[in-house]
Amino acid sequence: MGALPRFPEGFLWGTATAAYQIEGAVKEDGRGASIWDAFCAEPGRVKNGATGEVACDHYHRWPEDVALMADLGAGAYRFSVAWPRIQPEGRGPADPRGLDFYERLVDALAERGIAPVLTLYHWDLPQALEDGGGWLDRDTAHRFAEYAGLVAGRLGDRVKVWITLNEPFVHMTEGYGIGVHAPGRALLLDALPAAHHLLLGHGLAVAALRERTGGQIALTNNHSPVWPASGSAADRAAAAAFDALQNRLFADPVLLGRYPDLSAYGVTELPFVRDGDLAAISAPLDRLGVNYYSPTRIAAPRAAAAPRPGGASVLSEVEDRLEGAGLPFEDVPIEGYRTTAFGWPVVPGGLRELLLRLRDDYGDALPPILITENGCSVRDEPGRPDRERIDFLDGHLRALHQAMEEGVDVRGYFVWSLLDNFEWAEGYEQRFGLVHVDFATLERTPKASFHWLRERLAEQRVSPAPSG
Ligand code: BGC
Description:
By secondary structure, the protein is an alpha/beta fold. The chain contains 16 helices and 13 strands. A hairpin with a 6-residue loop joins strand 12 (435-437) and strand 13. The radius of gyration is 21 Å and the shape is globular. The structure holds beta-D-glucopyranose. Beta-D-glucopyranose binds next to loops.
């Protein structure tokens, strides 16, 4: 495994985190409650009753975390702002203490030459807004734009990239569709208004940001190549139906100004879409953020009584809940690949495949891409180097480079994650960090993968030998 192929000058190398997963200090400096505070408080929702109350205590230990990034040699850092620190009730004036926290962070990053990449919404909606309907309510989109304006009013001159939403597909399906994430609602397809209001919130926020910043503006989606389980017409149709949800629902409206065909779901009209919404949603973007973890394998729904094939996949829990819901697909395990501690198949080539596909599907409508998350969970065995993560990152970076050689315009790559952190419904069991966190003492210890990446980044910085 040695040096990686050379990435272009100016390519952004970074790590990524999210507010609720690392900050802790959930009651400090006027922070309001978020839907994740409420969800974690409900018995049985999160493994081992874990919460984000302390998490990595990044709220107090951020200088140490910035020093770790500087030591890594990363040129960028993707983090998210906790909306309830800025507007504890989700509306009204900003609490200056919330803005001060992120301003200190942004300034400390800049001092170390690390470009801040700010996500406005990584799933921590103020609970007060959820009480009024959350993303099912159109007003939340307007509240989001107001919040975006408040953050950009303070940091618009210093943040290089603004990401409106993180993975609206996951937020909608897991939070509102099946309820394994906050706010824990299980509405199946009745969650579709949440998709539209997330998209509308994105579009209105883009306008609010443009007025206040010259920084680049982006949306982050998670994309997954969808593999039909066989060449049969039924499996291919099922894969196309799933693809419309996973890959197109949050990309077509933004990049093409229209919704994908959802007729496989019996959805032919979207009564919550109003005149002008799609124009707002499709406002031009400077970057598309892409998170990639693994492909998905999809088959036609099996007959009701057929047994479920064994094996874990990202979607198996979803599938269990959807049993009998009459959806036009089911996911089936991908065989023949190593899996992460989470059970997700490790398929570096899937990254190349999805990037080529995005380019082919969207052509000139596709802005330059940032890989805003990629990484894996590895079992925590103290003292054992995380070789699996090194292999994962090496393989994915080579696949990424190949896609770039084939003409896909990618401008940056962010490892998920800097730190082991609160992995949503999995609590603290799944560890994605380049840096180990001992959740009893909060001590940070860089892993073997951190040292490996530091060497690779140093190699990338050495100027190429003059040719010929
Ligand atoms: C999310 C992260 C999460 C990661 C690993 C992404 O879906 O944006 O918050 O920790 O995947 O599951």
